[in-house]
Design brief:
Helices cover 37% and strands 17% of the residues. The longest helix is centred in the last third of the chain and has 17 residues. Strand 9, helix 7 and strand 10 form a beta-alpha-beta unit. It is built from 9 helices and 10 strands. 42% of the residues are buried. It has an 8-stranded parallel beta barrel with strand order 3-4-5-6-7-8-9-10, surrounded by 5 helices. It has a two-stranded antiparallel sheet with strand order 1-2. By secondary structure, the chain is α/β, with parallel strands linked by helices. The model has no long low-confidence stretch (mean pLDDT 95).
């Protein structure tokens, strides 16, 4: 696998770079534009919607490159009316009439019918192209995939939480499966925290964590959340380093197992 090569985001047909970028950690527009120049075009304008990504999106669109971006707006709302209201506000903030993905955030059971009905109405109005869902209930994803309700999923996967391999990846039909986007690659920072890893063991780097995720061919995009240009540059090292080799994989899994056993389950 060459991690510098873009790939199709599951059945959506969207062409995406392997590292996605999230807005919520405060990086500047410069950091996001640097990522875009390296082929990272999956822009997740998450909560909170920090201004750096909004500025970067506007700058990239002004260059006539809107079609090269895959823009995701998230909604945690359980109110259909408020979901559309805040989604519309998000569109106005970046000066667009539509985005590529509406992500229904943190659902551990099937979304309420009124939420799904309003989402479909918004889609029919051309406000977004593809519908996504995130959550922590791994058994829910194959169930929803079989119903064809969603075009892509955001799911938790890292070296300490590998259950997605048997409970999600192994149960999806590759030819027509939804796109798969992984988050929490660092396990909320535990895998890169010297105080959380085995005594005497060096912590993983953020790039180690992203490489672990992207070494699994089932994952289309691994999210990263840079706080500044330096963190973005460190994340981009992933693309050139490529997938983990056998020795690296064994070490990463060993650290992941330790973190899982000693740091609480986090779902």
């Amino acid at each position: 696998m060459d991690l510098n090569e873009k790939r199709s985001l599951g059945k959506t047909g969207l062409l995406v770079g392997r590292l996605g970028v999230a807005s919520g950690y405060g990086a500047s527009a410069e950091a996001y534009e640097m990522a875009f120049e390296r082929g990272c075009n999956y822009f997740y304008w998450s909560s909170p919607r920090k201004p750096g990504m909004g500025e970067a999106i506007r700058n990239i669109c002004r260059q006539g490159k809107r079609d090269e971006l895959v823009i995701v707006l998230q909604s945690y709302s359980r109110s259909a009316r408020l979901m559309e209201y805040f989604f519309t506000k998000g569109l106005k903030d970046i000066g667009l009439d539509s985005v590529d993905v509406l992500l229904l955030g943190w659902h551990n059971s099937a979304p309420w019918k009124r939420i799904m009905a309003r989402a479909r109405q918004m889609q029919e109005k051309g406000m977004f192209r593809h519908l996504a869902l995130s959550g922590h209930n791994r058994g829910l994803f194959p169930e929803l995939a079989s119903q064809g309700s969603f075009d892509l999923f955001h799911l938790r996967y890292n070296a300490a939480h590998r259950g997605a391999e048997r409970e999600i990846f192994a149960k999806l039909d590759p030819p027509q499966r939804p796109g798969l986007v992984s988050y929490t690659a660092t396990r909320w920072g535990h895998l890169i925290n010297p105080k959380k890893v085995p005594p005497g063991e060096a912590p993983l780097t953020s790039s180690d964590c992203y490489r672990f995720v992207l070494s699994n061919p089932a994952v289309d995009v691994c999210m990263c959340g840079p706080a500044d240009v330096g963190e973005m540059a460190a994340a981009l090292h992933t693309l050139d380093a490529g997938p983990l080799d056998e020795t690296e994989m064994a070490r990463v899994k060993s650290i992941g197992d330790y973190v899982h056993q000693h740091s609480g389950k986090f779902w």
